[in-house]
C-alpha cells in the first residue's frame, strides 16, 4: 500500500506549478467518533466511486499517510505520530532535540508542513481523507464535502469491544482517551474543538448500515 501511495502522490503533486483552487477536484473528509466504522465506509465509498469512474480513480487516505508524510517532509515517523497523538513535548525537550539533530524541525514547522501536504492532496482531488483532522486541515478549499460520523456511547463501546477484543471498562477508557487526543489535534491545527467545527453532514452510525452511509455519500458527491 505504501509504495502505491508514494507513487500516486509523486505523480499528483510533482507538477511544476502548484494546483490552483480553481483547478481542484472534489474530495471528501470523513471524521468520526471512536468506534464508528469510518474505514469500512470509506472503502465501500471508494469502491463505488471507482466502479463508476475507472479513468479518474479515487483513493482512500488514512493512517498510512503518516509514513508518506514522514518521507515527504524528511522527518522521522515518530515525529509525525507525535503530532497525530497530540503529544505535548514542551520547550525543554524541543531544545534538546534541536541540539541533538542537525536536521531537526520544530513541532510548529512539522505542523505547517503536514497542513500544506494534506491541503495539496485535497486540491489534487478524488481522495477520501479519513480522520487526520482532514476537515480542519482543508478548511476553505473548494469542492470539499465534510462528513462527521457519531453514535451513542454505549453502541461505540460495543463496537470497540468487538474490534479490539477489549473488555467493557477498557473499551470505555479507550474511547474517552482517543476522542480527547483527536479533539486536541483539532485544537492544535485549527484552534477550534471538534464541536466548534462545521461539517456538511452528521450521520448516526448506529442508525444506518455502512453500505447505506456509503451509498448516501456517493450520491451526494455525484449529484
Task: Provide a brief overview of the structure.
56% of the residues lie in helices and 11% in strands. It is of the alpha/beta class and 223 residues long.
Low-confidence stretches: 86-100
Tally of individual helices: 10
Helix content: 55-70%
Major beta sheet summary? 5 strands, parallel
Taken together, the total number of domains comes to: 1
3D structure, described in words:
- This protein is an alpha/beta fold and 223 residues long.
- The chain has one domain (2-10, 22-222): 3-Layer(aba) Sandwich (Rossmann fold).
- The chain is built from 10 helices and 5 strands.
- It has helices spanning 2-13, 38-52, 65-72, 77-84, 90-100, 107-124, 134-137, 153-164, 168-190, 210-222; strands at residues 27-32, 59-61, 127-130, 144-150, 201-204.
- A 5-stranded parallel sheet has the order 2-3-1-4-5, with helices on both faces.
- Helix 3 crosses helix 4.
Helices and strands in order:
Layout: H1 2-13, E1 27-32, H2 38-52, E2 59-61, H3 65-72, H4 77-84, H5 90-100, H6 107-124, E3 127-130, H7 134-137, E4 144-150, H8 153-164, H9 168-190, E5 201-204, H10 210-222
Parallel strand pairs: 1-3, 1-4, 2-3, 4-5
Helix pairs in contact: 2-10, 3-4, 8-9
Amino acid at each position: 500500500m505504501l509504495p502505491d501511495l508514494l507513487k500516486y502522490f509523486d505523480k499528483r503533486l510533482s507538477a511544476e506549478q502548484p494546483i490552483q483552487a480553481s483547478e481542484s477536484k472534489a474530495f471528501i473528509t470523513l471524521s468520526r467518533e471512536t468506534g464508528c466504522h469510518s474505514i469500512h465506509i470509506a472503502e465501500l465509498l471508494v469502491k463505488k466511486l471507482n466502479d463508476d469512474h475507472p479513468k479518474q480513480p479515487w483513493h482512500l487516505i488514512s493512517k498510512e499517510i503518516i509514513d508518506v508524510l514522514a518521507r515527504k517532509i524528511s522527518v522521522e515517523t515518530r515525529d509525525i505520530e507525535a503530532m497525530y497523538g497530540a503529544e505535548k513535548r514542551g520547550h525543554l525537550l524541543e531544545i534538546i532535540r534541536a541540539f541533538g539533530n542537525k536536521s531537526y524541525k520544530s513541532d510548529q514547522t512539522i505542523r505547517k508542513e503536514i497542513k500544506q501536504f494534506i491541503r495539496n492532496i485535497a486540491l489534487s482531488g478524488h481522495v477520501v481523507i479519513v480522520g487526520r483532522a482532514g476537515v480542519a486541515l482543508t478548511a476553505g478549499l473548494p469542492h470539499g464535502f465534510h462528513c462527521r460520523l457519531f453514535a451513542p456511547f454505549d453502541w461505540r463501546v460495543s463496537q470497540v469491544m468487538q474490534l479490539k477484543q477489549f473488555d467493557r471498562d477498557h473499551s470505555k477508557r479507550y474511547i474517552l482517551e482517543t476522542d480527547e487526543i483527536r479533539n486536541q489535534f483539532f485544537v492544535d491545527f485549527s484552534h477550534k474543538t471538534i464541536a466548534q467545527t462545521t461539517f456538511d453532514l452528521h450521520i448516526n452510525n448506529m442508525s444506518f448500515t455502512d453500505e447505506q452511509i456509503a451509498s448516501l455519500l456517493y450520491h451526494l458527491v455525484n449529484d
